[in-house]
Amino acid sequence: MLTDAQCRAAKPREGIYRLNDYKGLYLEIKPNGIKAWRYRFKLNDKASWFALGDYPGVTLGEARDKCEAARKLVREGINPVQNRQIERIKREQDSANTFEAIAKEWLALKDWEEVTKKRRLDMLERVVFPSIGKLPVRQITPAHVLDILNKTVKRGAPTVAAEAKRTMSGVFEHAVATLRADTDPVWPVRKALPPNKTQHKRALGAEEVGQLLNDFDGHGGNFQTIKAFQLMWLTLSRPNESVQAEWVEFDLDKALWTIPARRMKARREHVVPLPTQAVELLKAMHPITGHTKFVFPNRDDRQRPMADAALRQALKKLGWATKYSPHGTRTTGSTRLNELGYRPDAIEAQLAHAEPNSVRRTYNHATYLDERRVMMQDWVDKLDGWKTSALGQTA
């Protein structure tokens, strides 16, 4: 076996020569004076050389350790030369497959509205990317994930933490499915935080509905915001369905609003009968925004719809935010229509709720349109009555 003194003392010659150490480890001395460690091995009856680095950068002890690791690979039937090439390719791929790159790829594949994708990307850029965005996805551990979640909860945003957890898990599942990660590091810490309990707003009573609608009409805010809020109540549509409404979706002569599948939560086209008051509202809006794509265009960019956040901001200004949210409109509508005796099937069809029974969902294609038309006109007439009653009480 070689000693370090022998390695230092070895002088170059006219040709390459090697000093044997132990079990295939050699120190190769080149005519230019470079001394390189080489491991000679045989695999499948074929002899090959494996480079272990140059001396003295790689010491004798380090060369022996590297050689032993290579011997182990050979014993397992693995060519250390090929294994090094594979590992290099993996490192290069890992450096390109950062969490941020895969997250954006995952987002692009989702069948979501652009506004939803933008909102999710905004969350990632604020909450997740600063910590792990530039890291290769294989290097991210449960500790990284838990740190992000803890920091988000501590700053008072448990709902954002829950969304970040779901999103990160989705990204890692995509990485695993495309062979760019081995596991989902969110899984081990998925229950580390207490569950985020969504506080659903209760259904409003008739007096409260009347007061809310009067308050909103008279709050002096943006005209479009008021009208979008009214359309939501007149049709019991979701907030985003109302604020993103496009003129092409409406047939005012037939008093119908056909919301395309791409804008619906269940990804199914939804036909909404328009009460007289809704038709009048839209006719009043047409001279103002009829030349644009959207019924309620964005104030700063008329090529985009207004944001449903405008509704929440108005409610906060009015002091209603703690008692009611825009999504609570549908809860109130469902509760009150059931109390009025309308059939649950018609109410659920109006709300575009998916039928939970798979057999009924397959065979029941009825939209109860005529029944819903009567029901919604009755509903809106009730709203007018509640508003009038509320005004009388405050007079």
TrEMBL record:
<dbReference type="InterPro" id="IPR010998">
    <property type="entry name" value="Integrase_recombinase_N"/>
</dbReference>
<dbReference type="InterPro" id="IPR011010">
    <property type="entry name" value="DNA_brk_join_enz"/>
</dbReference>
<dbReference type="InterPro" id="IPR013762">
    <property type="entry name" value="Integrase-like_cat_sf"/>
</dbReference>
<comment type="similarity">
    <text>Belongs to the 'phage' integrase family.</text>
</comment>
<dbReference type="Pfam" id="PF22022">
    <property type="entry name" value="Phage_int_M"/>
</dbReference>
<dbReference type="InterPro" id="IPR044068">
    <property type="entry name" value="CB"/>
</dbReference>
<dbReference type="GO" id="GO:0003677">
    <property type="term" value="F:DNA binding"/>
</dbReference>
<dbReference type="InterPro" id="IPR025166">
    <property type="entry name" value="Integrase_DNA_bind_dom"/>
</dbReference>
<keyword id="KW-0229">DNA integration</keyword>
<dbReference type="Pfam" id="PF13356">
    <property type="entry name" value="Arm-DNA-bind_3"/>
</dbReference>
<dbReference type="GO" id="GO:0015074">
    <property type="term" value="P:DNA integration"/>
</dbReference>
<protein>
    <submittedName>
        <fullName>Integrase</fullName>
    </submittedName>
</protein>
<dbReference type="InterPro" id="IPR050808">
    <property type="entry name" value="Phage_Integrase"/>
</dbReference>
<dbReference type="GO" id="GO:0006310">
    <property type="term" value="P:DNA recombination"/>
</dbReference>
<dbReference type="Pfam" id="PF00589">
    <property type="entry name" value="Phage_integrase"/>
</dbReference>
<keyword id="KW-0233">DNA recombination</keyword>
<feature type="domain" description="Core-binding (CB)">
    <location>
        <begin position="97"/>
        <end position="176"/>
    </location>
</feature>
<dbReference type="InterPro" id="IPR002104">
    <property type="entry name" value="Integrase_catalytic"/>
</dbReference>
<dbReference type="InterPro" id="IPR053876">
    <property type="entry name" value="Phage_int_M"/>
</dbReference>
<keyword id="KW-0238">DNA-binding</keyword>
<dbReference type="InterPro" id="IPR038488">
    <property type="entry name" value="Integrase_DNA-bd_sf"/>
</dbReference>
<feature type="domain" description="Tyr recombinase">
    <location>
        <begin position="199"/>
        <end position="376"/>
    </location>
</feature>
